[in-house]
Specification:
With 266 residues, the chain is an alpha/beta fold. Helices cover 28% and strands 17% of the residues. Bound molecules: zinc ion (2 copies).
Amino acid sequence: MKFLYETHLHTCQGSACGRSPGREYPQLFKDLGYDGIFVTDHFFQGNCAAPRSGEWVNRVDAYMAGYRDAKEAGERIGFDVFFGIEQNYHGDEYLLYGIDREFLLMNPDIESWSRQTLFDNVHAYGGCVVQAHPFRERGYITKMHFQLDGIDAAEAVNIGNHPWEDASALKYISYLGLPRTCGSDIHSALNAVPEKLAAVALDEKLTTSKDYAAYIRAKKPISLLFPPERLICERPGMPYTPYEIGTGDSLTEAFDLSLSIGLEQA
Ligand SMILES: [Zn+2]
Ligand SMILES: [Zn+2]
């Protein structure tokens, strides 16, 4: 039995680029057969919707409004909603799981932390760090930073990426020997449709966000589910294909095609 989770989701309450309030997501994902979602709004160094000044507790609660909203909606229908964070350093972004409001409240200096300090403190708290969409090329990213130390996994498939960016990410993650995750990076409830989603399928049902952190840190199996057309990764106009999916390399096992097709038909 597999348990399906959305690991990368934004609300308009926590993320300035979010389009939907947290409350709109749980029913949609429940109907698609998911077991839960993680709300990972952009934190203060990224495209955060919460105020960047004022009392820390008020800022934290404003930042977490989308998560709370989603969690309340989930509780009404028996659907799990977990907390996560997407933190931004100069364009490179990290998904944090296994942390919570208490972690934020006891660390009012978190905005001044280096990457390594953040990773160390998240780990000490029982959380984990997943580098989000390495190899993404966007106007807001002025350089690529590849974190070699302190991350527990990296995102191999992100629906906000072009497929060829994912292909490069897969090759890189394989080189590092890290677990792979995937996520939709969904910003609007209108995109909660199978052809725009990427889910992780786990062997265990999660009870808390810390369970997911422990699962990743223990390197337990993670199947990646995403629309099959993302396997086509030739980059238009470029003389190379960064990675050819399906050439018999061990990476291909990450792409569980039967599950992927199953999700598409859900
Ligand atoms: Zn965003
Ligand atoms: Zn994101």
